[in-house]
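During the no-cost extension, the postdoctoral fellow (Dr. R.K.) reprocessed legacy sequence entries with the updated structure-token encoder. One reprocessed record is reproduced below for audit purposes.
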Amino acid sequence: MVFGAEYGEAAGERDSQLAIIAAERRRLEASPEQEFAELVDIYRAKGLSDRLAAQVATELSEKDALAAQLDAEYGISEVGGIVPAGRIGRACAAAFMVGSLVPVPFLTIGPVVVRELVLAVAVIFALSVSAVIGARADHTNATRTLTRTLTIGVGTMAVSLIAGSLLSF
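Re-encoded structure tokens follow.
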């Protein structure tokens, strides 16, 4: 399930980026002067003088006009650097499997009175492990991924605990 969800999300993002690349390539072929002027305008809007904006656009366009347009307009810095969706899905599935195994031993140890607390701590640890593995596999910021994962995970546990307590009355 995790693999499928992550694969679908990554595949959709990759398809969107590939569509943007194809559209930008067509625009460059159809009207290179207009695209160049757009690139100059982007750099001018960032605070460069008219002369410097034109110089930057010229130098970047001479090297790789498509890459210059993609980076300036869409923040796509590597045309060939889009991570395959399958790899992202497999990495997330692996992180989920490893992380979900961490709390299992805690279900059998300790007195019943503290088992829920121990299990909650184990789940938080498992979420942390999953987040770090996923971030490293995806080459993303581990701190941001860890913070997001723990916020969502702990929030979900809290909502589940409250809902379960309300439904048990």
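The chain has six helices and no strands. The radius of gyration is 24 Å. The remaining legacy entries will be reprocessed before the final report is submitted.
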